[in-house]
Design a protein that fits this description.
5 helices, elongated
Length: 112
Amino acid sequence: MILVLLILAVAFLLNLFLPWWCIAIPGLIFGYLFKEKAAISFVWGFVALFLLWGGQALYIHIANDGILSTRIAEMLGVGSPLIVVLITAVLGGAVSGLATMTGSLANQKNAA
C-alpha cells in the first residue's frame, strides 16, 4: 500500500511541471526499489495512477459541469462523458503499471 501512495504522490508532483509521460518515472523507480514480483508491481502501479488520473478527470468533469468530457465523448463516439473519465483512468493506470512492472523486472534481472 505504501508503494501506491509513493507512486501517486510523486506522479502528482511531477505531473504539475512535466509532460504526461512523466507518470512512468515514479513507477520505474519504486518498482525497482520495492523488489516486489512483477504482477504485484503492475497491480500497485496501475491502482496508483488509476486513482490519480481518474480522480483528476472526475474533478475536472465536475468542476466544469461536464462540458469538456461531454465534447470529448462526442468526438470519440463513446456516448457518456463518464466513460471518458474511465478511459483516462485506465490509460494512466496502464502506463504506470507497465512502468512499475518494468522496474520490478529490472531489479529481478540484476539480482540473478
